[in-house]
Amino acid sequence: MTIRHHLDEATILAYAAGTLNEAFSVVVAAHVSVCPSCRAAVRQAEAVGGNLLEQTDAVAVSADTRARMMAQLDVVAPLNTLERSRSITSPITSRELPRPLARLLGGSSLDEIRWRALAPGIAVHDLPLSPQARGHLKLLRIGAGKAMPEHGHGGEEITLILKGAYRDKFGEFRAGDVADLDESIEHSPVVTEDGPCICLIATEAPTRMKGLFARMLQPWFGI
Fold this sequence. Notes:
By secondary structure, this protein is an alpha+beta fold. The chain is built from 6 helices and 11 strands.
């Protein structure tokens, strides 16, 4: 598997520092588990952060602060499934998903997903997050040759391609590639003709559809 599209440096730094929200952390962990380049970048960022901590004088922490920190760890820990020292590096297939995603799906494969139809050729599967989590995490399946309406993003969005491919103004994205986008980006992805495209997507806010018809349909689509 050749990966041509990688995570933004700011995303890697935030992930290494543990400041990404839950949904984004799952997508980043899934990509890093199959991308040697981004995995190395995360390890390097962690090493730099560790060195900085070692050079920082110890500061006393109150009992209340410690309790809040431990409560937060209880929420994040179940989703920190990358296990960096033993990350899988095999291609993404319908039977072998990145470990962080496979854990959320309870071992199900892409062939066993129960999809919710949004429109002809477009279906979604919402993934669970903890009650405190912000944003949304979902799988999106778009049929071969289908085009998504031109749209922007209400905030950050990270998409990992699991199967198939799509093209937009940034190039062609195939299995393992990641589109790390912010609110300034507008595009209109078109799925290639060789089969459906299945993506894992984390979003901060709803998509900003362009065009009156697309905006009218957006509440029904739920994206």
